[in-house]
Amino acid sequence: MSAHTDGIEQELIHTRFDEMSEKYPDRTAVIFLGERFSYARLRRLSEQFAGALTHLGVQKGERVMVYINNSIQWVVAFLGIQKIGAVVVPVSPIYTSHEIEYMVKDSGARTIVCMDTNFGYVKEVYEKTDLKHAIVTNLVDLLPWWKRSLGFLFDKVPGGRVEKSPWVLPFNRFIKCEPLKTNAAIDPRNDLAYILYTGGTTGFPKGVPGNHAGMTSYVNDVTEDVAGDHLKEGADCYIAVNPLFHIMALGLFMAIGLNKGNTTVLMPQPQVDAILESIARYKVRWMLGVPALYRMILENDRFGQYNLDSLAYCFCGGDVLPEEVKIRWKAHCDIPIYQVYGSTEVGHVTYSHIGKEPRPRSIGYVLNSRKAIIMNPETLTPVNRGESGELWVTSPHALKTYYNKPEETRKTYIEHDGLIYCRMGDFIIEHEDGELVYVERSADIIKHKGYRVSASEVEAVLQDHTTVVGACVIGIPDERVGERIKAIVVLKEDAKGVGGAELIKWCRDRLASYKVPAYVEFRDMLPKSKVGKLLRREVRDDEKRRMTKTG
303-325: per-residue pLDDT in tens? Predict the structure, then answer.
């Protein structure tokens, strides 16, 4: 499992898009809520956004947080930020003020792009952070006036209250600026392209900095080696359902869509009927989903009413695809679902080979720009092929650190044979042909609806409650969502009248909805090691035994 090391790719993600906009100016780049945005128009909008940022005083290397739904504005902001050499900090639009405050402070962002629906959270943290500007948008801001009017008339467009203030800038007025035609001078290896946040083992999210070379490396792998001749430059169609703040969704969007002159149907929400209708209407050939999405599609009552004959290449990431979902999809659509695997820390790592049916629980084959080894986590030595071990990944192109987290960095990034590897926390087996098969994950990570949820982060929030002295959060297998989140809690001896509903509300006020426990169990004590470390895996194993007995 080796990686290419013959230099780094000098071409940048946004300059590849520029090339496509010159080659296919009239080709539709993005379809959003039925509106078509050509390559020329999207480039002009992104250059106007870049010019407006420059006029605002945002300089190369500054952090700009993007706190909005999948939308054409997300794409415009991303390309504009990259164009001036600033660093995009994409975060989930459903994060609460508790989460946003931490990430704004940690990243050093002074400018944020937000929705009017989550502006209230931005306003709440404005005085507590170094934020200077908020660029506020509505989902339909870049649609024609008549579409916006109809949407508001029939109450189809969510909206929020936004105050008038010098630091609040309406998106549509903000981009009425002279376009910035010149890209910033960027060093692909040493200049940051983004900072993404992932769960932390200490309870705080970890910022993962990514350089331009690292991102370009795996995007090129997907475009050239995974898709290859199956992808039709300037004549293909991809549907983007997963949130673009996730590295897997962003990478596929650039690899299959914008960097090959193709059309992307961008979905603001994963609504099944809207997805199926879009596939049929726009003759979509490429798709990425998570297991929960494929299951939702299969269980939709109107699934058989849509013509999905155009679909040719379906990929699944975020979690291992259940075999029964894969079999049912093949039976209904007569095409396989290929697997994708990666992480915020190392980008895209493995893909199935197109044309070859994936093994059960397969995560695919290692990309050319990545190198992977399978290690015994106790002895830190390689296991024999066919044996289960922890997956470690490295790349000569990617950064190998967490932002402002030296202790977390030391735990995750390990030197072996002169290379620095990222410990993935997932246990896998390698077959003779190089295909990797998933076994289990670290007890610290819960997979819920395709999201990676840090158990420690949820535990830290619970333990902030005045009555809680201990908490353990685990994932309970669930075929519909991957894992349900369960919290086992120990209360203070004098705690009275505190129930699960109150603790769930406490979490809901401080965490994104997908991180909130589904239910809470109270115990007198939790298992801990001799040095006081919570033995989360022991709790998980105990829960498995209980489920086996009751099942």
Answer: 999 999 999 999 999 888 888 89
